[in-house]
Amino acid sequence: MDRLPHEKGFHVSWDQLHRDARALAWRLQDARPEAGWRAVVAITRGGMAPAMIVARELDIRTVDTISVKSYNHQTQAEPRIIKSPDMEMVGDGSGVLVVDDLVDTGRTLEVVKAAMPKAHIATVYAKPQGRPQVDTFITEVSQDTWIFFPWDMALQYVKPYHGADD
Ligand SMILES: O=P(O)(O)OC[C@H]1O[C@H](OP(=O)(O)OP(=O)(O)O)[C@H](O)[C@@H]1O
Ligand code: HPA
Ligand SMILES: [Mg+2]
User: Fold this and answer.
1) Which of 25, 88, 106, 147 pairs as cysteine with 133 (C-beta 3.0–4.6 A)?
2) How does it assemble (predicted)?
């Protein structure tokens, strides 16, 4: 599926991501089961930075990964699991927090939820189409917005305003 063009861009700095991932952790603390969260599973690669911050905030030492690949740049292909977490540890997902940077169409999470149906799904950002797949998130952005993460950006020179038309 071709996802271009996106009307808007939402640019997230490292500082903003850190703040939002912390806010997600605090919300997840309130949503924890009686016995606490057993483990964090990060959806690689975008979920790794938020998962690290959540695990640090909530003092969760068991961290694993699931690798689901579904995009080449902004074009979506069929999502597929490239690497599974330790399923003996994860079980049906009870008490396990699955963390990703965002949900867009929700197709990545569909695949993940099929593998661990009782896991609690958390993303930092959510678009409306994928929102029903998520248990906890922080910020909603519109479907026609592309979110740019700090690891995909670099500081760059811009011409001064008075010379912009030259
Ligand atoms: O809800 P969806 O429409 O499925 O899209 C969301 C997923 O797409 C991106 O990952 P991507 O597959 O690009 O891999 P990456 O995390 O390695 O960048 C993003 O990090 C989410 O995991
Ligand atoms: O808006 C997005 N930004 C970055 N990666 C993504 N993968 C799906 N949607 C997005
Ligand atoms: Mg991803």
Assistant:
1) 106
2) Homotetramer.
